[in-house]
Task: structure prediction
Amino acid sequence: LSTGLDALDEIYTVQTGELCVVTGLPSSGKSELLDSVILHLAKNHGFKTCIASFEKNPSQHIGALCEKIVGKPLYEGSRARMTRSELRDAAKFCNDHFVWIQSRSGDLMNISELIMSARDAIHRMGCRGLLIDPYNYIAPEERDTGEHLQISNLLTKVQAFAKSYDLHIWFVAHPSKMSAREDGTYAVPKGMNISGSMAWYAKSDIGLTVSRSANNGLVEVHNWKTRNKHVGKMGVAYLEFDVPTGRYFSASDSPEGGAVMHSTTPDKSGSVSSGGFHDWMSAWEEDK
Result:
């Protein structure tokens, strides 16, 4: 299935029964990108997703999703905010397509507890996707083993769950601490750089890194692993990000060497002009 972003589709599409590991430096836009993908899947394919998003409470997360659905900010700012009617309709869409997993005790969940809750959501709502964001909020089950083996065993369970229930699972994992280069920038972390274990690379079906480019203002999505060639390919997609609405869209101009599709109009600086962005937003609303 399409991700809803032409540039991203060049390197990654959504196949059920697979595990997609997503990494990137803090504040690089990993969660925002995955929210965009699950919204597109819901809107165009009726795809329902179970969400274990530990860094946002459900009300915050729903607010962020509503901004993407409506194309207007929830709060006061530089653009006109959404109306109560728009918010109500968008929140209903979220209620119909997403379910959140939370620990009622306030303790961290282990992977078996999380899978059990996701299984309930599958039976109750027919969810086809599971988003786990991020790994470091999951309690270890095997305290007498090393971190590498813990992660390897955890990913084995997640892989088996994806295949047995025909789910697409997105699993966000932070990279190990990286040192800045002399110019203050950082290398783009890949699967081998994820903290704790090389199993993140070995056991993923798809591996993605979300990175903010220091040179061109675009967001880069790097595919560093694709197990099945019909699903995607290694390469880089270049995206624009609209901060007030949290929306991504394909860049029409980018550095040489990546997958780029034309959907907006850049100005000479490489940024998308207001006309190009609003044309895109109007087309999205008309399609919705």
User: Anything to note?
Assistant: The first strand starts at residue 18 and ends at 23. The CA atoms of residues 266 and 273 lie 6 Å apart. DSSP finds eight helices and nine strands in the chain.
